Amino acid sequence: MDYNTIKALLDKYFEGETSLAKEQQLQEYFQGEHIAEDLRQYQPLFGYFQNAKQQVTSEAFDQRMSQPISKPKRSLRLVYRWAAAAAVVLMLGAGWVFNQQVEDPGPTASAIDWSKYEPATEEEAIELARGAFLKTSTAMYKGLSTAAQEVENVKKIMDWE
Amino acid sequence: MNWMEFQEQIWPIKDRLFRLAYCLVNDRAEAEDVVQEVMIKLWKQGQGLLSINNLEAWCLRLTKNQALDKLKGGYRKRKAPLEHMGEPSTAANSNPDLKAEQQDLYDQVQQMMQRLPADYQSVVQLRDIEGMTYQEIADALDMSLAQVKTNLFRARKKLREALEKRNAYGL
Amino acid sequence: MKRLMWSSLLLLFTWGLSAQANAIDSYFQEYVEDEQFTVVYISPRVIRFVDDLTSKDGIEMDDEEAQAFIDVASDMRGLRILSTDVNPTKYYEEAISKIDTKLYETLITIRDRDGSRTELLLRENTDGKLEELLFLSHGDEEFTLMSFVGDLDLNKVIKLADEMEDDNK
């Protein structure tokens, strides 16, 4: 490529007006041995680009990553705490004749006084709420990841737990 | 999604993610950390991954954010590269003296890059190193096309100035 | 006469409140009154205490988790939990059959190898906003039914799970 063409191309490049194809031409020019004297100062930039293109993750990283990332196991601690806490909040209501009929009583039929089921302390309430959210989010994770069955199968096949 | 499927999706783009992270944090090990964190996040997304239209753009964005978080979170970016990028591949390769000299020049450019704001760096990285289109860059960095072009223009201008200054003063 | 008017107004008012439906009021009143069930109600009021409490002993929550928790919980207008260890499978099946599938849409169903099942259901209002998230699960040991009322943001729930998980690593 003659000097004038390349000079014009380089100016366009610095103006941010070159296409990918033209940028490729510049790259090739600056990789060659015949670089015009006054353009040589720009060579390191293109050399750097060329060099940076070839950077890849290390072998150790690839090895590490080709092992399944075990999903961090969520501790069940909170769930158990939740269950224990729930157990102490005893039901206060009296027995009620069990009604097997599947009739929609409608929301307006509500006669439940929920306030009497509130935990005694705020701490307990928050722990309970936390446990409840944890259960729910765990289910969401599980559900979103895949059918539980499939996870089991994969674990088994890959011998990863 | 199982592990195999996950790998198939991620493996082809991991080096590109790594290079973006590397250009931002300027440290190989830290960059690999960033990519690893991104991969773990993705793996946790599970089935959700399959519904992402443009996985690569999405991953690049995650990588950039993760890298910036790292910089914010106390990790001090090195001003000068600790290690060279690796083998420069130019016609000058055969001559060891020339090679060392060339390596030095690349290190200087790398430092110039490090002085640019993160948005400039990312745009140059994706355009000049990854060869992506403006639209692809806009998608990946969550910018408008105009922003991509402006950032690229300004970044190149700064690089040009730095190169010319270096030349003029022999810095 | 005046007093009568006031009390009927009050009645109307409370009626309005309870019309803010949740599945438990709608379908599971008898469970609430069944002595075999543990019943818990957590009002949104509690959430206000999170900030104070996390600084005390007893609740291990870091700032990020507390924030994620507040984020989720601030959208919540009530949490109701029912659980029993008596006949969990029977109650689960009964509960599932009671829920009006025209109102509740299944979000997630999980069937584990050990036979336990979990179901997440959503109810939206006419504007497409989330009104209630319903969680049902049973294993050998326990049947649990939870109703979160409010416009919960599922992304925030996932975020909270992330934070909790980080702590438990």
Rg of chain A is 34 Å
End-to-end span of chain A in angstroms?
60 Å
Mean pLDDT across every amino acid position of chain B: 82
The percentage of residues in β strands of chain A lies in under 5%
Could you describe the largest sheet of chain B, including whether it forms a barrel? none
Question: What is the H/E string of chain A?
Answer: HHHHHHH
Percentage of β-strand residues of chain B: under 5%
End-to-end CA span of chain B: 53 Å
Assembly level? heterotrimer
Count of individual beta strands of chain B: 0
Overall spatial form of chain A: elongated
Q: Mean pLDDT of chain A, nearest integer?
A: 69
Describe this structure in words.
Chain A contains seven helices and no strands. Chain A has helices at 3-14, 20-31, 43-53, 59-66, 77-88, 122-145, 148-158. Chain B is mainly alpha-helical and 171 residues long. Helix content of chain B is 70%, strand content 0%. The longest helix of chain B is centred in the last third of the chain and has 25 residues, at 145-169. Chain B starts with a helix and ends with a helix. By secondary structure, chain C is an alpha+beta fold. Chain C is built from seven helices and six strands; from the N terminus they run αααβααβαββββα. Residues 1-20 of chain C have low confidence and may be disordered. Classes of the chains: A mainly alpha (161), B mainly alpha (171), C alpha+beta (169). At the A-C interface, α5, α6 and α7 of A face α2, α3, β1, α5 and β2 of C.
Give the secondary structure arrangement, pairings included.
The complex is a heterotrimer of chains A (161), B (171) and C (169).
Chain A: H1 3-14, H2 20-31, H3 43-53, H4 59-66, H5 77-88, H6 122-145, H7 148-158
Helix pairs in contact in A: 1-2, 2-3, 5-6
Chain B: H1 3-10, H2 14-25, H3 28-45, H4 55-72, H5 96-114, H6 118-129, H7 134-141, H8 145-169
Chain C: H1 2-18, H2 23-27, H3 29-33, E1 38-42, H4 50-54, H5 63-73, E2 76-84, H6 88-98, E3 104-111, E4 117-124, E5 130-138, E6 143-150, H7 154-168
Helix pairs in contact in C: 5-7
How do you describe this structure in short?
Chain A has about 160 residues and is mostly helical. Chain A has helices spanning about 5-15, 20-30, 45-55, 60-65, 75-90, 120-145, 150-160.
Name some characteristics of this structure.
heterotrimer, A: 161 residues, mainly alpha, B: 171 residues, 8 helices, 70% helix
